[in-house]
Amino acid sequence: MVATADLSDLNSLEELFENADGVIHLGGIPDEADFHDLAEVNIVGTYHVLEAARRAGVPRVVYASSNRLTGMYSAGDPVSSDMPPRPDGFYGVSKVAGEALCRLYADKFGISTIAVRIGSYEHRPGSAREQRTWLSPSDAVRAFLATMTTAEHVAVFYAVSANTGRWWDLKAGDAVGFIPEDDAARWGAAEDYDPNLPQGGIYASKEYSIDKMSL
Fold it and tell me: The pTM is what?
């Protein structure tokens, strides 16, 4: 069955979620945009998903978060999911808010929430940055299968392939059963990436955010 619902329509989401074993929330604006749009779709929309799940008695919500939530850390800094957020733009800020909502619904309402900080989902890495952040399609499937089968009640982890030069720790993923098998190194020798640059790359530039603002 295929059903269509709008993230702005809480009642429709509640009806859609009836008798569901879990919800994988992939909806939203997937890149930098005007903050007002990001707030309405990514933050309020995520609240609607979680609240609809609570009302419908759904036991688990899996949230598609993003590596851009920590994109201002330097490339020379290994990052784990328990470190403070350092978003590289307003999109990243919306993901910080989404993860906070997930934690609230887990702590206050007892819903199991698993936040997946997705890397660069591509068929193959296309840049020096993506050699560190690449998430292969096969490893993406492994990540989301783990989210729906893990015994963990609350978790946040990076969905990234086992890239030789990756920036993000895999221990949190291992705890939920995510064991990546692919490595960007299979596609060629690693290119240099200045360790002083932000992990977000171009996404961390001022222009990338300002150009998306509605002035």
Answer: 0.96
